[in-house]
Amino acid sequence: DISVSTMYKFDPNSQFDAQQLPSMPAEEREKAQQAVQKDCYVEPMLDVQKCCEIEKLIDEVVECGNRGGFSCPKTVDKTRLRTKYFFGVGYKYGDGKGTETVYPEGCVDP
User: Which residues pair with 101 in a beta bridge?
Assistant: First the structure.
C-alpha cells in the first residue's frame, strides 16, 4: 500500500493545552478537538514516485533476507510477529530498561 509520505505539524502559536482535554465537558472537548485540527497541517515530504522507489528498495532487502543473502548472523532479527534488519550497528533490547546491548562489530552487515 503506497501513499504519499507526510509530516504533521502543529501551530506553535496555538492556545490549546492538550492536558486539559480529558477533563473537559463533551461540548468543550469537541470545540477543542476542532481547534486542534485547525492548528494542525500536513506538508508532503515525498511524492508518489519517491515512495515507490523506497518501497522497491525495502522489497529488495526483504528478499535478500529471505534467501539468506546477508553474511552476518545478526543482520536479520526475526520473531513470530515482526522482522527487523540491522546495518552498520545492531542491538538487542534485553530484558528491560537499561539492559539494551550493542552487538560487537561484524555481527551485522555494513
Answer: 92
CB 107 within 8 A of CB 72: yes
Residue type, 70: F
Report CA-CA distances (Å) from 96 to 2, 11, 20, 27: 35, 36, 32, 42
- Residue from 19, 11, 4 nearest 41 by CA: 11
41, 85, 91, 103: the catalytic one is 91
DSSP state, residue 40: E
91 is catalytic: yes
Give residue-wise pLDDT tens across range 41-73: 777 788 889 999 999 999 999 999 999 999 999
pTM: 0.56
